Amino acid sequence: MDQPVVSRMGPRPSSRRGLPRWSALAAALVLAACGPGATGSPPEGTGTPGTATEGPTATTAAWVPDGPIDMIVPFTEGGPTDTVTRLIAGPMGEVLGQEIVVQNVTGAGGTVGAGQAAEADGDGYTILMHHIGMATAPALYANLGYDPLVDFKTIGLVTEVPMTIIGRPDFEPSTLAELVDHVKANGAAVTYAHAGVGAASHLCGLLFQDAVEAKVTEVPYEGTADALEDLLGSQVDFLCDQTTNTTQHILAGTVKAYGITTAERNDALPDVPTTAEGGLPDVSVTVWHGLYVPADTPDDVVAALTAALQVALTDQNVIDELADLGAKPVAEDAATPEGHTAKLQAETELWADVIEAAGITPQ
User: Fold this and answer.
1) Quick one: 149 and 170 in the same domain?
2) Domain check: are 202 and 342 in the same one?
3) Is residue 43 domain-shared with residue 100, that is, in the same domain?
4) How do 152-167 and 126-130 pair as beta strands?
5) Domain tally, the chain
6) CA gap 94, 32 in Å, rounded
7) Letter string b/e over residues 132-151, b meaning 16 or more CB atoms within 10 A of that residue's CB
8) What is the pTM of this model?
9) Confidence class for position 153, pLDDT limits 50, 70, 90
10) Residue 25 domain boundaries
């Protein structure tokens, strides 16, 4: 497995226009005291591994951190998951009254960072931000070393981000239909960049190749930030990446935009057609991001982190910056352990079938 590469950087300053810190903290503590659910009512039942079990009652003291919190991003600095992480780290830190320090721990399609988080102490001071790759890893890696549904508790989803298919600025095709024809005609002579096996950019590429019934030459990188840099320099032909990473380049005209992988056009990119409009309705994928802690983390800690997340997602600065990147915060019921776990379970089953159909053998 690749050696981890760690980048330890603090969160970007937040120009909060929402609740003052102590008001936000008080709101978070009220939610935390009522348990991890979005409504403030403790969930019923005994729960299962990987989910938030019975939450603390209103008489249970809410957890308040007394030192900095590490938030692990298993992908490179400057990539789309890193961008989302740094956007919410500041507001969450303000709610909790502590600095959240972002750590980029890269390698093996995000599994190095996730594995490190799974082995951390369940004390609330190590959080993992991961994307759709958390659901695909079990089908892609034979010796993963952790089970996403057993070795973690979910905190809540953060955002679902559309993906865009883009090409180098001097690439011959100008539309998605032309790109399909070009790939069919040239096959392996066409290069497709992605962030490694199991990364969202890789999964999108699998769907594209399956839809056009042609194989291209895949060029893996440690992250899509590096892949995009080579695309801008015309070192590779095309890639599929999240709008958080591509919107500004598309608007600036420094890349060619072929399609967005959602059912409807995106407000931030109104001139980019959907993949369905371009004749590829099966190339439909959004990248969801969520927060995790080790499975032995106490429920009051989970509840406090969930409450802080929910406050952060109502921060107007977060909402505005996500909108500029073609994304938005998830609904309140998704920013909970229950909503997050349901998403993780469903996506794990979905992508296991897609990966098997693509003929990919677990590494």
Assistant:
1) no
2) no
3) yes
4) unpaired
5) 2
6) 16
7) bbbbbbbbbbeebebebbeb
8) 0.75
9) very high
10) 6-161+287-357
